[in-house]
Design brief:
By secondary structure, the chain is mainly β. Helix content is 6%, strand content 40%. The protein is built from 2 helices and 15 strands. It has helices spanning 80-87, 164-169, and strands at 11-16, 20-29, 33-37, 42-46, 50-55, 92-97, 100-109, 113-118, 122-127, 133-136, 175-178, 187-194, 197-201, 207-211, 217-219. Strands 10-6-7-8-9-15-11-12-13-14 form a 10-stranded antiparallel sheet. A 5-stranded antiparallel sheet has the order 4-3-2-1-5, with no helix packed on it. Strand 8 and strand 9 form a beta hairpin. It starts with 10 loop residues before the first strand and ends with a strand. This is DUF2642 domain-containing protein.
Length: 221
């Protein structure tokens, strides 16, 4: 995808994994991420999930991108990890699974996952390889217009492992929710995490085995 640079400042159409179509102004491209301005918000999209990208024939965006919402506005090349680190503590919307989005704040960026605080789901561990895109909000906005007393934006007090699988191993023997509970069989007692397999015991006592690399998020109920 080395030729993408020639489309910077042009309107493009992007297809993302899951047949999601996004169009907007291509503002920047790093080694592993692009920045799209849709006309009302910025989207940060890892190249990992881009199926194809092409210039848009019919132009639609007439407004100038507000630089105040750019996470990084500097000459150095951007990267996925650099953007995630700059996003820490800033209210963002993040897409990981299906058509669900999560609103909240990144508190930590580890080797292959992030720790995310959501007023709804509380602390969520999210695999970096499954983040489809995320967008920042104005510093004046807070999730659900909650006050600061309801949003304890502090690093997780729990010990954090460097990798996603090692972090999940810490919860063996506890109830856990995988992928935001999009499937009832992804909610249960975490029995074991090993050899790229997660063993989960569901409410009816049945053992379900999930391939670890397909797990997007994990959080305690």
């Amino acid at each position: 995808m080395s030729g993408i640079n020639q489309l910077i400042n042009q309107e493009v159409e992007v297809e993302i994994s899951g047949k999601n179509l996004i169009s907007g102004l291509l503002l920047d491209k790093g080694l592993d991420i692009i920045v799209i301005y849709t006309g009302n918000k910025f989207l940060y999209i890892p190249l990992l999930h881009i199926q194809h990208l092409k210039e848009k024939v019919v132009k639609e965006i007439v407004s100038e991108p507000p630089e105040s919402l750019l996470m990084i506005n500097e000459p150095e090349p951007i990267s996925y990890r650099k953007i995630l680190n700059h996003a820490k503590g800033q209210f963002i919307e993040l897409f990981v699974t299906g058509n669900k989005s999560i609103h909240g704040y990144i508190t930590s960026v580890l080797n292959d996952y992030i720790v995310f605080y959501s007023p709804v789901y509380k602390i969520i561990f999210i695999s970096m390889q499954h983040i489809k895109w995320f967008t920042p909000y104005s510093n004046q906005l807070t999730p659900y217009t909650l006050g600061s007393k309801d949003l304890p934006i502090v690093p997780a007090s729990i010990p954090l492992a460097r990798s996603f699988d090692e972090q999940l191993k810490k919860y063996e023997g506890q109830l856990i929710v995988l992928d935001l509970g999009d499937n009832p069989e992804k909610i249960g007692l975490l029995k074991n995490v090993s050899n790229n397999i997660i063993e989960l015991i569901t409410a009816n006592g049945q053992a379900i085995y999930w391939k670890f690399t397909h797990i997007k998020t994990a959080n305690l109920p």
